[in-house]
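Fold this complex.
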Amino acid sequence: MQKIANYINGALVEPVSKQYIDNYNPSTGSVYSLCPDSDERDVELAYQAAEAAFESWSNTPSEKRSRIMVHISELLERDIDKFAMAETIDQGKPLWLSKNGEMPRAISNIRFFGTAIEHFASEAHPMGNHAINYTLRTPIGVVGCISPWNLPLYLFTWKIAPAIAAGNCVVAKPSEITPYTAYLLSEICIEAGLPPGVLNIVHGLGPKVGSALTVHPKIKAISFTGGTKTGAEIARVAAPMFKKLSLELGGKNPNIIFADCDFDKMLNETVRSSFLNQGEICLCGSRIFVERSIYDKFKAEFVNKVKTELVVGNPLDAKTKTGAIVSKMHFDKVLNYIELAKLEGGVILCGGHAVKPEGECANGWYIAPTIIEGLSYDCRTNQEEIFGPLVTITPFDTEEEALMMANSTEYGLASTIWTENLTRAHKMAAEIKAGIVWVNCWLLRDLRTPFGGVKSSGVGREGGLEALRFFTEAKNVCVKL
Ligand code: TXE
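Structure:
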């Protein structure tokens, strides 16, 4: 069976413990590779390698850092088919989505930050003729990056690329549930000539490897994407050490649909924003609020479209729109929430059950896209992050009511508004408590924009200059003239 290796000091190595964790293919429910069960000893080796590489990497001209990173992105592009297949087998998403969605975005992340660093400049603040201030931005040192399982390579590169571009050395931990593409990326980093120690990848469990990174006194910043509870634990441990933290956490995003929207455009996008990647995207709109005058029409057409178009099954099959749920644990969690929704009075309009495809995927973890109505906005199903192919629909009468329900959760990551009324769109966008508002679109991303949430959805912003600022320390120098 294929053994995944850690990537430490430029070499592919086995974990110190020599122990491995089973890595499952969710589309078949079977173990297909082994993930290192690393611990604090591997993290220490990775830290030492990163620390040793820092002096040289941080003094490498940004033009040269850029060239290496662009080369990594080109090699990734060369191997896109291999990476897409690996991601689908590891994560369960349809192959077309890996190939046309996630992998191109992972490539863009590396290229974007690899080139952005060449244009990164700092500010000067002249005080008339008396003095001049200028800001120096220097890399932090050794930083930690911890990423989740829903968009494995995309979110991994989203963190490591700005960190490395800015001159830091990294100890990174991909999710133990989806370690494979990060492992393949380490092979590419070796081929591209990334100096040893600049990027180190330690695979393993969160409470072992992730927490060893968080408690390490010399790892000065942590960029984390994952569940809110894990984020809170990282913040608790890191705060007394005054580590810099960027936490991208959960969401329970509202999708607010007004009667004056472009109905067809909205309907197509709402199917995507509800169920793309099996609903396992922190930006998916899982609470759909619909103006009452179009509620029945929306309900009928939305349910019909989801039932007829979203074929569930083998992610390798080109017809499949909804692949497998990432793990047995997550599969059980989503099914439990469906039961909870029923207990809370929800009416299942479609889905609401597991799916058992025929043949080799019969033991995989599949759930039919599920639409539920009849729930109060403040019940658990409508307040807790489920992170699967499950949405609720709820009618509203006024803007104020829609806003109140939209803002009622502890989360505030993203939101979507559908209206052709420009004044209303701007007003709602200003009043929604979220880090991201999409008007008449969803998941339209420009890598230069700030990305992150408010409330329990996180702290800090990533993306564009925000990420480069996070991964550097600013120092003001004031010179009296
Ligand atoms: O995430 P975890 P899980 C949400 C979603 C999901 C829930 C739990 O609701 O059901 O979180 O998912 C590492 N110290 N999201 O359990 O555990 C872990 O190994 C340091 C939203 O998979 O937060 C992995 O690499 N690290 C989300 C990463 O943290 C620790 C994406 C995320 O795993 C750790 C994923 C610890 N003590 C889940 N414990 C989004 N917002 O995109 C675990 N980890």
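The longest helix spans residues 95-119.
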